[in-house]
Amino acid sequence: MISVNDFKTGLTIEVEHDLFTVLDFQHVKPGKGAAFVRSKLKNLRNGNTVERTFRAGENVARAHIENRQMQYLYASGKEHTFMDTETFDQITLDEKQIEWELNFLRENMNINIMSYQGSEILGINLPNSVELKVIETEPGIKGNTAQGATKNAKVETGLNVQVPLFINEGDVLLIDTREGDYISRA
């Protein structure tokens, strides 16, 4: 058990049989009444974000989430297969579980799989940025260089990204996995 007074961003907790990660929290001490902790929590099972208020000093169960390094092997229809890099065990995840992450996954890429109590797979932990190759983009037009001019580029995973005009097909880009934005050329 952990006190809500000890909340930290990124902490995983179990509340009413659901698993949450703490995104944000604020200790509130009103002039009248008892202190409380206002928190923003992300449900690890369905991805929903909720706001929840706890009484100061209230205890919640701490959820121990395991991160195992795995390699993305291949897609077969709507199922995606991953292999544990140590034991060579393979697991299959449905497309719905990793919908956003598929925009950044390439075959043979190493990532972390989050699991709860060793058996329930919660999802994928991607690195903050990944390198992806541009497969399709229009050429940049000279004279079309107003401040911050961008164009659309399609990368090898199928993700469309807004990039500067100097990016060409075949370039390798550094892409932010949290927002899906262009960072720089790799």
Automatic annotation (TrEMBL):
Annotated GO MF terms: translation elongation factor activity
Domain of life: Bacteria
Xref: InterPro entries: Elong-fact-P_C, NA-bd_OB-fold, Rib_uL2_dom2, Transl_elong_fac_P/YeiP, Transl_elong_KOW-like, Transl_elong_P/YeiP_cen, Transl_elong_P/YeiP_CS, Transl_elongation_fac_P
NCBIfam families tied to this protein: efp, PRK00529.1
Coiled-coil ranges per UniProt: none
Subcellular location: Cytoplasm
SUPFAM superfamilies: Nucleic acid-binding proteins (SSF50249), Translation proteins SH3-like domain (SSF50104)
Positions of the Translation elongation factor P/YeiP central domain: 67-121
Name the UniProt record assigns to this protein: Elongation factor P
Key words of the record: Cytoplasm, Elongation factor, Protein biosynthesis
Natural source organism: Paenibacillus filicis
Domain Elongation factor P C-terminal: 130-185
GN (gene name): efp
Membrane-crossing residue ranges in chain numbering: none
